[in-house]
Automatic annotation (TrEMBL):
UniProt lineage: Eukaryota, Metazoa, Chordata, Craniata, Vertebrata
Reverse transcriptase domain boundaries: 765-1031
A single GO molecular function term of this UniProt record: methyltransferase activity
Record-linked SUPFAM superfamilies: CoA-dependent acyltransferases, DNA/RNA polymerases
Pfam families: ALKBH8_N, Carn_acyltransf, RVT_1
Protein name listed in UniProt: Carnitine O-palmitoyltransferase 2, mitochondrial
Organism: Takifugu flavidus (sansaifugu)
UniProt-listed InterPro entries: AlkB_hom8_N, CAT-like_dom_sf, Cho/carn_acyl_trans, Cho/carn_acyl_trans_2, DNA/RNA_pol_sf, RT_dom
Keywords linked to the UniProt accession: Transferase
Classification via PROSITE patterns: RT_POL
Length: 1184
């Protein structure tokens, strides 16, 4: 604060570790705050070494002195082609040369240069005061500097020093202040001096010299840059003057403005050189302005012109008093700024739109173009006609293949009013088949209906719905409808093919339509026909919506960080005491207040059916095609159609390249996130270890002034550090939307350093009071459809959206709860466990089944249970009792109980929001703790015997019973026990969705008797889809293969469409791996060994087709699955908690590292996972 004015500090973070990166047409500022090294240049050679250790502390001055001595004594000669000279080139040329450097393998070296703290230039020559010093600091020889750095410190051999600043990141006043502090500190408190002895350090390993790879193009570019630099230096003259008297203080004593006098001096110099005065650009470098800078372009006033003429041409005609009076008038006029003054941004906004960078030009009101008037009364006339009966507007025609014309149809729907406002578009001769999905021929805003021809359809419709409005349309070549449809009227009166009317539309209403011919779709030889209602109906059209979004930029985030950094959190938190809800509301409102005042907003217009590749040129061609068709010029129509086809391809190619370039750029927000290995299912192969504090320096007094003094240790014995909170904040996905508390995760992640202390205080306060703020428990329920076309509320899955801050706390609590509860968890619970997934659940079920069926007179019965809203039926009272049995701390149990009770919930469906209700039962789906709490809630029912076991995957529960000689008592007892346990724990079983599968290979088998639950028999099925894998009662995989083949074939269409758009092979392979390979190889380790040869050949042929589309050979089914089976077996052997670990461990050989084969009397068991994986494992690992 200065004179009650807040100072802007938004550019101060770019003082260090900042580089101006050249680009074509526009440069970018790059700042890497994690850089710890400094760039040193000497004789054109470039060196880097760290000046900050890993803990953020500066190295000792004597160590830095030792590293500099090592550089000064380095005998490496000056390079023949120093790349530093390239920074003095034209920016576009330098951008090309930099791209060439990257292509030659210099990316790492450039990254070190860009992220350096600053640049230190050591000149072997001595500087003499005067002109020589100016030349040395401003020009030097051009080879021993890097002009793109935020600032460079030049030091000569004789000790003279100066700073050269790159001005785009901030004001010169900032560097002037820093230079003054450097000079004062180095002269008054020197850390080293010429007589200082450097410490003995290994500078050879600490100092790294950068070596660049240069080709002939770069060498010629460096040579040309050197010549250009010498040419510019030879044409530039520099002079300076030292004023012994005068200056700013003298001007102020005489009531003259120093700024106005400087501008007046420029005017006088320009008048002497060019004979005229002009507007000048005045840069006000003051921190009182936003971003620390304000540039205005004031016009030359009459006082300026008179004063300049008097001093330049009429000096002898005026006295000293008169000249002084003129100076006072100029100064006074400049201070008042009378008249209209345009800023630089306003004048730049008048340039053509292609040169405007801002989203909204700041054009002055008096210079704006007046909008012309529009026709009035259209809406009123439409309102007067809105209650008339209406018939749908129809577009019909023969298209001769529809799939390859969808691009043009989408563009027409986007740009042409006739297509956009049509109610029905009916096309014949579409050439569609079963492999083309409905989604591939669907237009946004329309519902696709496909049907084959039926000769009795019209008669049946008339019989069932005699009063309905019926349309019949199609290509009726050589057919007459008068005798067949006597009550229908034909409305197509224009020609549809050449001069013939072949495409007709008949309706059972008179005077309904008027027909208009439209251009054909693509190269079809039939025209399209628009059937417009005889009167103008009110068309329900999706209007253009206007959304208000925030403009997240580096400057806005810096401003927000400064606001939160300078906040006295003690003043906000201490008045609330133990009022946790009031404290949470206060902190949340303050964060939102700072966000609203720091991050600007803008309005975005969202158009319906707005395809991103439809450009203005494409719209013009569509209109040109329409005009050519209306004029009846077939030659022009063919020419325009050819141009349209080419333009469609070019527009899509341009959009494709844009997406590819976007995909190649790394996501800066994910660079600091840890990599969690995934298993074959895509689930984490292991979970992170419990959180540990980050190595940080001492906390800021503004962030944690009250953490240790005011809050006692929570009775749970659990407390969080600011480092743990900060690490979880940095892991948030900033692309997610704000939740009910209104705080965006982008704010939490970007301002993690500023907010971690306050949130730590809130989290520990919550644990201490055993209470969760109501704001954090408030959930917005969004219904997600379970089916493609939901018809009932049960067809939706309620997903709860809760506060991101609460999710951070849940993750911290979960890392503490998991090791406490793990000894009591069900060992056959395969969900949310480290290194265990869907594959393991299916493998374990099949292993028990195959091993049992390998014995004589054995039948396997599998009961698949289904819960109704399992997560929503958790009872907090029962869960509390179970947690207390697990010897969990009572205060932590109370905190969990409060987490499950008193949760305000409301439902949001599009723009409709329901009234909130209070929920005291269940754990909302979408929260972090809900899966863990559900598995803990169901952990007390465990069943694992030699002939019967119960296994779980979240709420998917299965009981597998091995029945020998018809003895089913144990199996039925376990089923009854589980049903009784579910009833006692208030878990509702949906008997209608429960299924049972019986696997029996005996020759004389009798029909199994069904199991009765709650008075209903459970249906016995021949196949069942368990965790995405199709199981059948013969343990064959034909049904599963058919499902995989069908799904992969339908996705092959999209791969071919991408190939038709000339997408590169790398992107195609990425699409294959993420969309198609995930489908084909899903749980393949479970079924590949037992699959039939014909089914394997089908899948391999499909993979071969996909490889031909991608452009190179892909690994077939056997190659992929063999590696995965061996990897899965090794995972089982290395994981003692895996249910199959003991089974495999007993088979290990005591003499070698091989694994013995289990005894298999049946071929089906021999082809199952475990024996097959053991064979592959032994063949890949030689015996000792």
């Amino acid at each position: 604060m200065v004179d009650a004015y807040p100072l802007d500090m938004s550019h101060y973070h770019r003082v260090f570790n900042t580089t101006r990166i050249p680009g074509q047409g526009r440069d970018e500022l790059f700042t890497n705050e994690k850089g710890r090294h400094v760039l040193v240049m000497r004789n054109g050679n470039m060196y880097v070494f760290d000046v900050v250790d890993r803990d953020g502390n500066l190295l000792k001055p004597t160590e830095i002195q030792a590293h500099l001595n090592y550089i000064l004594t380095d005998l490496t000669p000056a390079p023949a082609f120093p790349i530093g000279i390239l920074t003095s080139e034209n920016r576009d040329m330098w951008a090309e040369r930099r791209d060439k450097l990257v292509n030659c393998g210099n990316t790492d070296n450039l990254r070190l240069v860009d992220s350096a703290v600053c640049c230190l230039c050591l000149d072997d020559a001595s500087m003499k005061k005067g002109d020589d010093m100016l030349h040395s600091l401003l020009l030097a020889n051009g080879c021993n500097w890097w002009l793109d750095k935020s600032f460079s410190l030049h030091v000569s051999k004789s000790g003279e020093a100066g700073i050269c600043m790159e001005h785009s990141w901030g004001d010169g006043m900032t560097m002037t202040d820093i230079l003054g502090k450097i000079y004062k500190d180095s002269t008054e408190q020197p850390q080293v001096h010429p007589g200082s002895v450097a410490v003995a350090v290994d500078s050879a390993s600490a100092v790294h010299q950068l070596q660049f790879n240069l080709d002939s193009v770069l060498k010629n570019g460096i040579k040309k840059a050197n010549d250009n630099f010498d040419l510019h230096v030879s044409q530039l003259s520099i002079d300076f003057m030292i004023f012994g008297k005068g200056g700013k203080e003298t001007m102020k004593k005489n009531n003259l403005s120093p700024d106005s006098m400087a501008q007046l001096a420029f005017q006088m110099g320009f008048l002497r050189m060019r004979g005229q005065t002009v507007p000048t650009s005045e840069s006000c470098s003051m921190a009182r302005f936003k971003h620390g800078r304000l540039e205005i372009i004031p016009s030359a006033t009459t006082y300026t012109k008179q004063c300049s003429n008097a001093f330049v041409y009429q000096r002898d005609q005026h006295s000293v008093q008169q000249l002084k009076a003129m100076l006072c008038q100029c100064s006074s006029c400049a201070e008042k700024r009378s008249g209209i003054v345009y800023t630089r941004d306003q004048l730049m906004a008048l340039r053509p739109p292609s040169f405007v960078v801002e989203d909204k030009p700041q054009i002055p009101k008096e210079l704006r173009r007046k909008r012309q008037g529009t026709k009035a009364g259209v809406k009123q006339r439409m309102k007067r006609r809105r209650f008339k009966p209406c018939v749908p507007a129809v577009i019909t025609g023969n298209v001769r293949s529809l799939a390859n014309k969808m691009d043009e149809l989408e563009a027409l729907t986007r740009t042409q009013r006739e297509y956009r406002e049509a109610s029905i578009m009916c096309f014949t001769e579409t050439w569609l088949h079963g492999l083309i999905l409905d989604s591939n021929v669907t237009i946004a805003g329309f519902t696709t209906v496909r049907a084959d021809r039926d000769t009795t359809a019209a008669a049946d419709l008339q019989t069932k719905h005699p009063g309905a409005f019926i349309l019949i349309t199609g290509d009726f070549n050589h057919a007459s409808l008068k005798s067949t449809l006597r009550t229908f009227h034909q409305y197509v009166q224009c020609s549809t093919r050449d001069r013939k009317t072949l495409d007709l539309l008949c309706a059972n209403v008179t005077n309904a339509y008027t027909s208009t011919a439209l251009p054909p779709l693509g190269k079809s030889d039939h025209n399209l026909v628009l059937l417009s209602p005889s009167y103008t109906p009110v068309v329900q059209q999706q209007s253009v919506t206007v959304r208000t979004v925030r403009k997240w930029s580096d400057g806005a985030m810096d401003c927000l960080q400064d606001a939160l950094e300078t906040t006295n959190w003690s003043a906000l938190c201490e008045p609330h005491g133990e009022d946790l809800d009031g404290l949470t509301d206060c902190v949340s409102d303050y964060i939102k207040f700072c966000t609203e005042n720091s991050v600007p907003t803008k309005k975005v217009r969202c158009y319906p059916n707005n395809n991103p590749w439809v450009t203005s040129d494409l719209k013009a061609l569509l209109n040109k095609k329409k005009r050519a068709f209306t004029a009846g010029d077939p030659a022009e129509l063919r020419s325009v159609q050819k141009q349209l086809k080419s333009s469609l391809k070019e527009s899509k190619d341009a959009y494709r390249k844009k997406l590819e370039e976007t995909g190649e750029e790394p996501d800066q927000g994910c660079l600091d996130c840890p990599n969690i290995p995934l298993n074959n299912n895509g689930s984490p192969s292991h979970l992170p270890e419990p959180l540990t504090p980050l190595p940080t320096s001492s906390p800021s007094p503004l962030l944690t002034p009250y953490m240790d003094s005011n809050i006692p240790l929570p009775p749970t014995g659990l407390s969080f550090t600011s480092g743990q909170v900060r690490r979880e904040l940095e892991r948030l996905n900033q692309r997610k939307a704000a939740r009910p508390d209104g705080i965006s995760p982008r704010v939490l992640k970007s301002c993690s350093r500023q907010l971690c202390g306050t949130l730590q205080h809130l989290f520990n306060q919550s644990l201490h009071l055993q209470k969760i703020p109501v704001l954090w428990k408030t959930s917005c329920l969004v219904p997600v459809p379970k089916k493609t076309h939901p018809v009932a509320p049960s067809d939706y899955r309620p997903i709860a959206l809760t506060s991101h801050i609460m999710k951070v706390m849940e993750r911290l609590v979960l890392s503490h709860l998991r090791p406490l509860v793990s000894p009591f968890q069900d060992p056959l619970q395969f969900a949310y466990q480290p290194k265990v997934g869907v594959d393991d659940a299916v493998i374990y079920l099949l292993q028990r089944a195959y091993a049992s069926l390998d014995r004589l007179n054995t039948t396997v019965r599998v009961m698949f249970f289904d819960f109704s809203s399992a997560f929503n039926t958790i009872q907090p009272r029962l869960l509390r009792a179970k947690l207390e049995k697990m010897q969990m701390d009572a205060p932590l149990v109370s905190w969990i109980e409060d987490y499950l009770t008193g949760r305000p919930q409301f439902v949001r469906l599009r723009s409709c929001v329901s009234d909130p209700l209070m929920s005291n039962t269940g754990a909302s789906q979408g929260t972090v703790l809900s899966p863990f709490l559900f598995t803990t809630y169901t952990a007390d029912f465990q069943c694992h015997s030699e002939t019967c076991h119960l296994q779980k995957y979240s709420d998917d529960t299965v009981i597998v019973g091995c029945v020998e000689n018809g003895q089913e008592d144990e199996y039925r007892d376990h089923v009854e026990s589980f049903v009784r346990w579910s009833r006692e724990n208030l878990l509702q079983l949906n008997v209608t969705k429960m299924k049972e599968m019986v696997v029996d290979f005996s020759k004389s088998k009798s029909p199994p008797s069904p199991v009765c639950i709650s008075g209903k028999d459970v249906e016995i099925v021949s196949f069942y889809r368990f965790l995405g894998v199709q199981l059948d009662n013969k343990l064959e995989w034909s049904t599963n293969t058919d499902a995989v083949y069908k799904k992969a074939t339908s996705r092959l269409y999209f791969l071919r469409r991408l190939r038709s758009f000339s997408v590169c092979s790398r992107m195609l392979h990425m699409f294959y791996q993420s969309v198609m390979a995930s489908t084909i190889f899903f749980a393949a380790v479970c079924w590949d060994a037992g699959i039939k040869a014909k089914d394997a050949n089908r899948l391999n042929k499909l993979i071969k087709k996909e490889g031909s589309v991608v452009g190179f050979k892909l690994a077939n089914l056997d190659e992929v699955v063999k590696d995965r089976m061996v990897l899965k077996l090794r995972t089982i052997m290395e994981n003692p908690s895996h249910p199959l670990h003991n089974t495999v461990d007993k088979l290990r050989s005591s003499f070698s590292n091989r694994v013995l084969q289990p005894r298999c009397s049946k071929e089906r068991y021999r082809k199952s996972f475990l024996p097959s994986a053991i064979r592959l494992y032994n063949s890949s690992k030689p015996s000792q």
